[in-house]
# Entry
Amino acid sequence: MNKEYLKVKENDLENVARDFSKLLKNFSNQNERSCIVFLQGDLGAGKTTFVKKLAKILEIKENVISPTFVLRKDYGNIIHVDGYRFEKEEEGKILSLDKELQDKGKIILIEWPERFAKAINLKPDFILEFTYLNNEERNMSIKST
Ligand SMILES: Nc1ncnc2c1ncn2[C@@H]1O[C@H](COP(=O)(O)OP(=O)(O)OP(=O)(O)O)[C@@H](O)[C@H]1O
Ligand SMILES: [Mg+2]
# Structure
């Protein structure tokens, strides 16, 4: 499956997040483990902004912040991870995600997975790609693997 969303404005992101939340629901109905989501795209492409919208759709009350400096932040069923600051792939081990990988219904959303995911053997169930177009618009794609 590959869905494309073109010229997405920040205000439209909520619709994309709602679409994606349905895919997440199907996934958790069909799998006895957590769902791993890679968020790919350059600095400022909109990865964190998307997680905020998704958290809203999933009715998470807490305020979502960028995990760039905390590396990992948990909100209800969401685990939001950012590999940007890792210098070596092995540093991904400090995230200690092993336990949660088995948790049905958990969603592990990962920014900058290319910096560490291989070293801890994380494979995505979905890849979301964000492409900067201009100040207000992004292209997006959702692939299931
Ligand atoms: N259509 C859009 N989608 C997403 N963000 C947008 C859009 N239009 C404008 N923006 C703005 O672009 C910025 C995106 O920043 P965000 O922190 O989400 O990026 P990021 O991909 O997480 O970057 P980083 O890799 O640095 O963590 C925000 O300031 C947001 O308000
Ligand atoms: Mg970010």
Notes: The radius of gyration is 14 Å. The chain has one domain: 2-144. The first strand starts at residue 2 and ends at 9.
